[in-house]
Amino acid sequence: MPEAPMTIDPANWVCPLPLRETKRIMLGHGGGGVLSEELIENLFLPAFGSTGKPGRDSALLDVPAGRIAVTTDSYVVQPLFFPGGNIGDLAVNGTINDLACSGAVPIGLTAGFIVEEGLELVVLGAVAQTMGKAAAKAGVTIVTGDTKVVGKGSADQLFINTAGVGVVPPGVEIGPERARPGDHIIVSGNIGEHGVAIMSVREGIDFGTVVTTDSAPLHRLVAAMLAACAASGAPGAVHALRDPTRGGLVASVVEIAKAASVGVELDEATIPVPETVSSACSFLGLDPLQVANEGKIVAFVDPSQSATVLAAMRARPEGVNATIIGRVVAEHSGMAVTNTPFGTTRVIDRELGEQLPRIC
Fold it and tell me: Looking at the Swiss-Prot or TrEMBL record, what is one Pfam family this protein matches (predicted)?
């Protein structure tokens, strides 16, 4: 079974070294002076597992052979802490997963913090420590970062911007434009859990059980999928990958359908939606197929290799509930439809905005 998501209670965080006589962020912490230096040396570096190397304005990375993949993302989730995680591990895992969807092996992350004046240091420290632990667990280093402090009321506690660098191994060709008619569509597990976890805390709604975020790094799952295809003599069988975050499953399949000028046909009854998610979405008037996920992947795979890929996914803790949910068709180019349990077909498309804002 998958490991329990990582989280850290800010009430249990203790600064490794004292940060003067303040318990909250002050404007001076972002001013580049002594307070900034103390914040970096006594809070961030211990949390990120600093090697003690001299500080630079940029990190130097040893890069193996292959193409470079680069991604960036910003995290503004509210609340900062939610069942199973917080904004810190969400930022690390989300950045890793963006790289993984290109088949890249992550080699370094950056972290930029926009901190509101008055934020408690225990909160910032707990988030930073979670980031460090999540990165270490994923086998990736946070190699450089930045901190800015804005006046009270100019932000909402804490925003995090990340960038990730990875290497795409030779021979790996994955992209949304490579989906083709006949491909099987596989999702790595239950959908909708992250969005419902956020809403349960944000709205104070008790769904009768605790729904935790599915936030997890997926690069090892992707590596296992690619290795299985290579071992079976079909190294290019995984055509497209997408992590269904904002906009959920619907946004992912529609975007790929448009990019590849193909149609998508899903079998609604096969899509793994947990009962807790289904009930919560029904109560809130949401479509679970459009609720965000942070630890799932959607794969478009050559049908001759879908059984091989499915077995490789199910052998990993991140993919134990992987299942085939549909196929790519030549008809209705750029559109996605679902076959309902009632024998009808309905068109699915992205929302004009977000069902759930501030979800990541």
Answer: AIRS_C
